[in-house]
Amino acid sequence: MPLPNEKGDYSFADYLTWSEDERWEIIDGIAYMQSAPSPVHQEISGGLFAQFYSYLLDKSCKVYHAPFCVKLITDAVKTNEEIKNVVEPDITIVCDRSKIDDKGYNGVPDMIVEIISPSSIKMDRLIKFNKYEKVGVKEYWIVEPEGKLVNVFILQEDKRYGRPDVYTEDDKVKVSIFPDLFINLKPIFDRIDL
Q: Per its UniProt record, what SUPFAM superfamilies does this chain match (predicted)?
């Protein structure tokens, strides 16, 4: 079994051979190990997921929580060896259900939420931010548990993320991809002890 590391030219074919006991992501062929989420991370993720799930129950879009494999494919179907971007966002919303298979999602999600931890700041704010912007994720949230903040990035007409809208623990966040959805942050952040 190959041992992933930060050098090499890894693909989804390699990803499929790695231990399921470990969480890995591949961005531009570089493998990154994911740390286990903290209880605070899990509570925030669960609270957000519950609100998205309730809203989407009778709609065509679907919401998934980690671990959920997303192969960031922007063009024609590729072989496993050609797929060099594989991520496991904390929350993923997809509206093109035809791209879901038994391994996850094959394409660009409509929305992604990442909850940062001290070990994931560079990954979520820089590496994934740039990758999600480049492939065209319409809405990207970065949740900061420590400050009880949510930074919302919306893809603009120039295919770049504009300045973030920043929300605090007492706010309701308007979800741009759904005209009538507001996520209430208060019950999510009220439950966590930092």
A: Restriction endonuclease-like (SSF52980)
Give the integer Cα–Cα distance in Å for 50 and 14: 33
Domain count, the chain: 1
Give the number of other CB atoms < 10 A from CB of residue 51.
19
First to last CA, the chain: 39
CA distances from 69 to 34, 49, 97, 142 (A): 13, 16, 14, 19
Joined together, the tokens standing for residue 189 give 């952040």
Instruction: Answer whether residue 70 shows pLDDT above 70.
Output: yes
Query: For 92-142, what is each residue's pLDDT tens digit?
Result: 999 999 999 999 999 999 999 999 998 889 999 999 999 999 999 999 999
Residues 167-179: pLDDT tens digits? 999 999 999 999 9
Residues near 86 by beta carbon (within 8 Å), at least 6 away in sequence: 12, 15, 24, 25, 26, 69, 70, 71, 72
Classified as helix, coil or strand, 151 is strand
| Within-domain flag for 72 | no
Q: Measured between alpha carbons, how far is 30 from 115 in angstroms, rounded to an integer?
A: 21
Q: What range does the domain containing 92 cover?
A: 38-67+88-190
Global pTM value: 0.93
Q: Is residue 6 part of a domain?
A: no
